[in-house]
Sequence to fold (321 residues):
Amino acid sequence: MYKPPYQITEYIIKLIASVSEKIGEVNALHLYKPAAELRKRNRIKTIQSSLEIEGNTLTEEQITALLDNKRIMAPAKDILEVQNAIEVYDQLKTFHPENMKDLTRAHAMLMKGLVDKAGKFRTSNVGIVKGSEIAHLAPGGLMVKSLVNDLFKYLKNHDDLILIKSCVFHYEFEFIHPFTDGNGRMGRLWQTMILMQQYPVFEYLPVESLIKEYQNEYYSKLSESDKSGHSTPFIEFMMTLIEESLRQLLQSQNTPLTVKDRILLFKAKITGRKFSRKDYLQNFKNISAPTASRDLKWAVENNILNKSGEQRLTEYQFKDL
Fold:
């Protein structure tokens, strides 16, 4: 079975432990699906950051205006890039990260109207130029499809941790450079897709804003991995950013959940089944039994829950609204 070359260093092991611990905290605090306003804000930050790395000039305020269907004054190409990105991120859950056809479909949407062969792998040879120097000479065009096939086989079949796989895929994708343009934004998008499989919080976590902040180091670690022949330096870098993005999320969420927040989070988890107050309490271990009773009473009064039975035999079920 093909496995891209890399090494697990002590630093990577420490990062895996720290990231896993923080994801546990995120899940315990029910931050894996932030409030709607925060989700929208983080999505805007993600789009703005990923496209600014590629030279787009639109600000978060201008992207917000586009999301609200308002007109803005900006270069047509920059507006189209943002509109394409909004469409892709709106449809994230329709893509499967292990499906190569979904990758090309996402690229076709992301680069629509920007390149001639959106959604098609390149067949010509390319090099990446920084200043007056060739920073990266990508594999020949005739090798692209087989290299991408191998990479997807690794993603689908290997038993590496998802955290590691996502970083390895991101680096190898940039190394292969399978499209004529849009490889950077696609590599970052697909790492998010891979992480979302196991950790839903990454759908709304703007890791790209940290990549933008450390953009020079991002390219430096890609280059260092090229020269060393393995993705270890890039894995260490990306894992550091993932850890930092989770730390910032935990630090920013000091506001306790409201009654409505708890009820809607539980609705997403229980998926239509009947449940008791005890079931509800087990999901929110930091609230008291009286608080749980008040939550459920509020949901019944607001026509969100049906209630049946009395006292210890009381059961609840969410209404289909």
